[in-house]
Structure formats: C-alpha cells, structure tokens
Amino acid sequence: MTSEQPRPGPMTDDEVVGHYRAGTLLQQLHRPATTAMQEELHAQLVALHNTGRIDLLAWSEAPEFQGIDRRYSFTIQQVYRNIIPPLKAAPPVMVKVIRRIEEQIGGAAILPRDALRIWIGQFQERANEIVGTARSDPAFDREILAHALIALGDETVAMSFIVAADARRQGPWRHWARSSHETEAADGTLRTLVEIVGGDPDEDVRFSAIFAAFDLLAYRKTPAPRWISALLGPTETDVASIA
Fold first, then answer.
1. 79: number of CA atoms within 13 Å, CB side?
2. Quick one: pLDDT at residue 43?
3. pTM above the 0.70 mark?
C-alpha cells in the first residue's frame, strides 16, 4: 500500500473512479474527517456502484485488500456497514463479500453482517434465494440463514427447512419437547428452549434447541409466528415478551 497521504476535502466522482482503477481507493477511506463527510463518501460510493462505474463487491478481493494493515480493519467494516443496505447485488455475491471481508480482517465482520441482515430483509426474493442456497449447502452460514428465515416470516418455510436438517443435530431435545405437548407445559418448554437458543455458548446445542422447538410446534399444531423471531434471533426483549 502506498504511503501517499489522502488530501483533505471531498473527491469528485472521477477521482473516486480513478483511485478505484489505480488500486488506491482503500487508503482514501481515511480521508473524511467528520461523520457527515464519511456518510457523503459512502453515499457517493454506492451511487457509483449502482450506476456501474465501480464494483464495490469485486473491490473486496482487489490486491489492495491483501495483507491489509490492521488500522484499516474497522474502517472497512464501517464502510461496508453503510454501503451494503442500498447496494444492488445478487444474494450469493453479497454473502461471498461478507466471508471475504472476514478472511481479510482476520475475524468476524460484525458491522457488515448486521448490514447484510438489513439488506436481506428489504426484499423477500433475497431471503428466498438465500434459503434455497442453504437447502443445498449443509455448511451454509447459520447466522445468515437465520436472517433469511426471519425476513420471510413464513412458519411453513422455517419448519420445512428445519425438518429437512441433519437429524443428528436434533439430539434428545425432541423427546423432551414432545412429552410437553399440552399447551401450558409446551409454552414453558418453549420458553426454556428460547433461553437456551439465546444463551448457550455451544452452537450445536443452540440449534438442537431450535429443532426441538419447531418439532414441538409441529406436533401440537400450534400457531407459531410469535415464536419465530425469538427462536431464530432471540434478544432480551424477545424472551421477556413470551415470559
């Protein structure tokens, strides 16, 4: 990466495109001195991408991203958090970008992942495509899949997907859940499962609890919409609302 220092002041569209083509755009991300200027630059990047003058998705695999300086890691996350929601892109490409950013910064891309959640939720077609991809890919990112299922909000889709999942992940929870099929007992069981999903550090245990909860809902023929978001993306508010 060149040692040239970004000069103050906003860039013209042609200057942004010039840096993009020259492989020096990354260092320009540090040039905005205020939040307002950063937002203006990010909006400028989105406009140039959506009109086809630059490709911010392909840019994430450009040589300038390789061996990236740690000081750019958070800046990159901030930029992609802001530019992802309005970007035009195919779902598989957007998912690849998140994975690529994580590889380059050497950790979880928390901010871009949250932006991806927003992006998925904007159009059901995106969520449908991601769910379809996950059906044929057992190793598909579970967090991204959960975002898509929540965005769809379709009990039938969520349950059919979970029923088709690897039975080994369902574990002994199924027997416990099915033994609690009466309404009052089942609600108590479901609250317990939601707490496990939201708080257990073991990913397989969390997903076993999800499978058990959906299995119980199917067994009882109980309307499930109020449980969907709590099971797939629980927060303290979700848990409190069903307590």
1. 24
2. 94
3. no
